[in-house]
Amino acid sequence: MLPRFLLLYGAMFGAYGVAAPFLPPLLARDGLSPTAIGIVLAAGTAVRLLAGPLGGRLADRSGRAPLVLAGLSAAAAVVAFGYGAGRSFAWLLLVSVAHASLLAPMTPVADALALGSAEAVGGFSYGWVRGAGSAAFVGGTLVSGQLVGRLGLGAFVGANAALLLIAAFIAPIVPNRMAGRRDVGGDIPVAEDRVRVAPRARLGPAAPAGPSPIKTLLGVPGFGRLMLVAALVLGSHALHDGFSVIRWQAAGMSPTRISIVWSLSVVSEVAMFVLLGRPILRRIGAAQALMLSAAAGALRWGISACTAAFPVVACSECLHGLSFALLHLAVMRLLGAMVPAPLAATAQAFYATVATGAMSSLVTLASGPAYGRLGPSVFWAMTLLCVAALPIALRLRGFDPEEEVGATHR
């Protein structure tokens, strides 16, 4: 069971890794201005607001999430070749929208599948799977840096498509246990080394089979505040994703150094998922972990506004483990506590696309003209987004199932 998920996440996140650092420079090479790059990237992010929940809902309603995931991955592999087929603004905009619409539901559906198996008897830690994905992202980024250094910016396109095709072949063989996360009317045995699900999530009534699952989700206590915290902190990463590499290139970094500093951020992510995240969550709780993530993000973007020196950037990128990975683990824990099992994939898609996607889309759209006019100082605005998340995260205390377990034993 675990090896199949490790292979799936390795292929998926390896595909993301080879493309993430060098897609914006590819657009710049094709003659797009900073504003046009912002529009292309923002359009891809914006379409996730619709495509992500639709894909998640399709996985929930069909009961065949692995096959849905396989189809999305195969189609995304085909569309990826479009980045190498033309250089006009209109064509690149079309490819970006099509590619993003297929990629958007993939990680949420995979996360829902992995969490379902992790919660089964004899399950595994979700962090192991997500950490393996992050490690594959690092490997993909390092390989991409070598390919780009030797063959040019377009070299990562074929690698991205090949890895997505591999994921499409692996997806149908992973277990489909999303519907088995809860046994209504009684507890299910739960493995100890996993993100725990609060008793109210396992024993509560099934979600209504009405026409508006999103409305049901928004009515879940604490869900809206959790999504807002995720939107502010993760949305602040959009400027980094779109323009950090362009800035580093302007400062004279080589493709190899760029791949190294980008990989360092994901190495810190792997360490958080595999080694540090669970002990931190146990020690301080999910709400405080969200606050720590927001504070780390504020520090990271403040450093980015001040310098692009390679040693300093290498250190600041290591804050990614806190600003992203720890936040993600805290969100996973709280979603497991809040959301009824029949809405598992829908909630994951809402988190990954609507909540964080809406803010990311707005930030990406604004970042093009803002970066073109203000340069690196625009990162101070991202610091403000993280600071704004702090008081909201504080209000999520009491929703952490680990806190409930600790209170019971006290």
How many strand segments? 0
What kind of sheet is the major sheet? none
CATH superfamily: MFS general substrate transporter like domains
List the helices and strands in order.
Answer: HHHHHHHHHHHHHHHHHHH
Helix-residue proportion: over 70%
**Overall shape:** globular
What is the CA–CA distance across the termini? 36 Å
User: What is the level-2 CATH architecture name?
Assistant: Up-down Bundle
Give me the Rg, rounded.
Answer: 20 Å
What top-tier CATH class fits best?
Mainly Alpha
Number of domains: 1
Kindly estimate the percentage of residues that lie in beta strands according to DSSP.
under 5%
The number of helical segments is 19
Mean of the pLDDT scores? 81
Spans of at least 5 consecutive residues whose pLDDT stays below 50 are 179-209, 406-410
Structural class based on helices, strands and sheet pairing: mainly alpha
* CATH topology description: Growth Hormone, Chain: A
How would you describe this protein?
Keywords: Cell inner membrane, Cell membrane, Membrane, Transmembrane, Transmembrane helix, Transport. Residues 8-380 form the Major facilitator superfamily associated domain. With 410 residues, this protein is mostly helical. The protein has one domain (2-178, 216-409): MFS general substrate transporter like domains (Growth Hormone, Chain: A, Up-down Bundle). 76% of the residues lie in helices and 0% in strands. The protein has helices at residues 2-19, 23-29, 34-62, 65-80, 89-103, 106-118, 126-151, 155-170, 199-203, 213-218, 223-235, 237-250, 255-284, 286-306, 310-317, 320-338, 344-374, 379-394, 401-409. The longest helix is centred in the C-terminal third of the chain and has 31 residues, at 344-374. The model is unreliable at 179-209 and 406-410 (pLDDT under 50).
